[in-house]
């Protein structure tokens, strides 16, 4: 059972690509080996900046001999058929066997596939792997046509067992596989040969290369935290940075340096971001003050001066970078202390999106909406509007221009510097949240109001210009915005009718989009519409209200077909429904994680106030729980049976059976009992729904299961007696009516 | 490893010239036009195209009008020097050759930390891209190292290896200088020692003022249009020259106009008169010129064209 060792030695592989490359190498090689009939015990991949390595243990020495039998045409079949069979098997006629079968004499081909030595298979598989390697970006070099992430210099490929090592003979574009490699570029550059993986790893370590990326990362973290601890400090954890830095060095040497006094007053986020983005430094924090006071850099070598020169050089580069940051910070603070006017003015020249206009216009829309939302989330409307007006101001600051990832965080500092209320400063940072399914939510009411307004305005805007997410394309992160709204509403237990807000904001956008081209009357109309929606709730009612208002005020208003307003009357409700449906889709995805079936949500979507997501989810949770009980599950079957019979009868008779089920025509005891049960359920469901106690409503509904089952068991609906039949159909209608009051059970699958 | 440290800016340049000359490069002179980077020199842009081998090294003064700081910023200049090396096909030991050049200017690898950090290069104006690294010395970016994959929309076959050194920054690091204007230009013990500031402080002031406030933008727009039109007009000429009776494709004269258009664009950009959306359009116009020049260059002898191959229809 030989072991296989592969090393692909190249110029520096980008750190971010190494993890994917390890996985791809392991998967493609082992898949290829297995497909060719070999088996192996274990495989492990490693990477350093200059090498990609795979060690496969316990590989079989040969693939097994295989014998394949294939049945061909009948012996008396036309010549053409036989020729085709010979072609497909690669045999000649005299190599075929004629055998007797039930259908007569048939040609059989027996193809022997002798096993092949592992080396032959490895060579083939590795060459194919190298030639088709899935690098995110690859290149050519010199005169060759081979592609690799950077020039590939050598291939080490050996099979080793207790008798020694054997080089796998192979050649990829002139690179012959061998058994040698090199150590650290500067500390041990000479080539050496190896006989096994253990030998390879041990010799590499002597040649100042730590092969295992995890070992390098652990070493870096350990040395960094030790160095910090010795000074009473702590390293700011950053897993992504740790992985990246471990991918930039073969021989990590951790060095800790001081940050110049002049820069210690910069906000910790600025120090951290600047050091990480530009220099790939870790930040070291004083736990007592929370300030960043030192940095950790990871060099790729030991030096006779214990890294002093390297640390000095890095410190100088850092000082230059932080001077820039301090310069931005100083300039920004002056503008912030003057009330941020300069930034807010300049945002009118900054485009948010070409059709949706400037950032300043966007801020206006968000501020108006935030004021509208404030009472729904328990926020002070004045503060919410004020917060929305400054929440994007930092986009014009020099610091955010330099470090876009600091948006919001700088906003908070600048709002504080401007002397704005604490709630406003907090909203500057928190209104961007949540940035993903696991990110924190805004907590304070003012932050919540601005966060909802910001996201809703973005969604409505892109819906108004028909730039919706498609497939994997969502360049404006609209799905994230919708999920953010959903999470805020649900986790803060907010009762918000989304439809009204959607209509308002869509109209606001439509108004803005048509401001230049619309006629004065249209504009006037639209402006009134926005006001009226606030009062009437939804677009349709508001539209009529404006017509009424204008009609009474001056001349009668008629919306002629084909005009822009007539089109709006039709298109706006469509846009609004579509956006609400987008929320519902996102909600389904979100609730799938909570174990709520999508058909349960569909059943609840048909109910009133489905734009109130908290209510919708409450209903869905209750229905989901009810369906998990035996009664609930069976009730759905009973309901569907009742519904089907009723629908068929209605279709056949061409009438609706809606009214007049009367207990006095009941013939069977189960029938009478069902009347009583329905009366009882109705009496319980109505107040329960009133109180939004869906669990009680579902329980009352589920209690119908036994009487419905008994009724169907005992009674034939379509009897000859027309009066009894009609009465029973009307009774089925009552079942339908009662059940549908709680949820649309027709949507439940199964 | 004992290292003989250079003492001035010019000594670093001279050592690089000596090093690359010794490694077999043709040491060329700067191109005599305003360019934004050493890559624009036809010895790089055009010579990276086609099949003919090439090896050249040169200093190229480079102009970035938006980076002007009136000579006050310790690191930023609107006029600075790049050192550029282009070798086609890229030799297998290009990294070692490069490291040798750092040693030649006094960087001792026993004490310094040299790193190759991913940095892919792209020039939207030249329609060019390549993969490579920025090279860090103790955390400082000292060079750009690129394997050209495409130039002017043409795949590079063979691939050129390009090295670009930002000379001021590199020299400041090697000489231990914090403000560029304080860097010794010639030897500090020369009879008349000159600093970088003695040579360039005044010009930085003059050009900063002109770039930001005085350059006539209407004229610059006209110049841009004129250069663009001239580039196209030159390339539209038939290949056969009636006077000499030779096949002469006027790539370099046309490419000069492309360089001019690019520089006028940079000046307009510094004046802030080009909006974000227009910016893309102007870059696209320069790229279209660069692409036409590249198309034309591969039809010339220097670009690998031969009468025989053309006759065979290869």
What does the model show?
The complex is a heterodimer of chains A (750) and B (314). With 750 residues, chain A is of the alpha+beta class. Helix content of chain A is 53%, strand content 13%. Chain A starts with a strand and ends in a 10-residue tail after the last helix. Chain B has 314 residues and is α+β, with helices and mostly antiparallel strands. Chain B folds into 2 domains: 9-210, 2-Layer Sandwich (BirA Bifunctional Protein, domain 2); 216-306, Class II aaRS and biotin synthetases, domain 2 (Methane Monooxygenase Hydroxylase, Chain G, domain 1, Up-down Bundle), CATH 1.20.58. Helices cover 40% and strands 19% of the residues of chain B. In chain B, a hairpin with a 2-residue loop joins strand 6 (128-137) and strand 7 (140-151). Chain B is globular, with a radius of gyration of 21 Å. Chains A and B meet through helix 8 of A and strand 4, strand 6 and strand 7 of B.
Shape of chain A: flat
- SS strand fraction of chain B: 15-25%
Largest sheet of chain B: 9 strands, mixed
Q: What is the residue-averaged pLDDT of chain B?
A: 94
Give the CATH superfamily of the largest domain in chain B: Bira Bifunctional Protein, Domain 2
Task: Provide tags for this entry.
heterodimer, A: alpha+beta, seven-stranded mixed beta sheet, 53% helix, 13% strand, B: 314 residues, alpha+beta, BirA Bifunctional Protein, domain 2, Methane Monooxygenase Hydroxylase, Chain G, domain 1, 2 domains, nine-stranded mixed beta sheet, 9 helices, 40% helix, globular
Q: Topology of this structure?
A:
The complex is a heterodimer of chains A (750) and B (314).
Chain A: E1 3-10, H1 15-35, E2 42-48, E3 51-57, E4 66-74, H2 79-89, E5 97-101, E6 104-113, H3 118-131, E7 152-161, E8 164-167, E9 171-172, E10 175-178, E11 180-182, E12 191-193, H4 197-206, H5 213-230, E13 234-235, H6 239-246, E14 253-258, H7 268-279, E15 282-285, E16 292-299, H8 308-337, H9 341-346, E17 351-353, E18 357-358, H10 359-373, H11 381-390, H12 398-402, H13 409-417, H14 422-430, H15 445-464, H16 478-491, H17 498-513, H18 520-536, H19 539-553, H20 564-592, H21 598-605, H22 613-627, H23 630-653, H24 669-690, H25 694-702, H26 705-714, H27 722-740
Parallel strand pairs in A: 7-10
Antiparallel strand pairs in A: 1-3, 1-7, 2-3, 4-6, 5-6, 7-8, 9-10, 11-12, 13-15, 14-16, 15-16, 17-18
Chain B: H1 9-22, E1 26-27, H2 42-45, E2 54-63, E3 79-88, H3 94-104, E4 114-118, E5 121-123, E6 128-137, E7 140-151, E8 154-155, E9 161-166, H4 167-175, H5 196-214, H6 217-236, H7 251-270, H8 276-297, H9 307-312
Parallel strand pairs in B: 1-2
Antiparallel strand pairs in B: 2-3, 3-9, 4-6, 5-6, 6-7, 7-8, 7-9
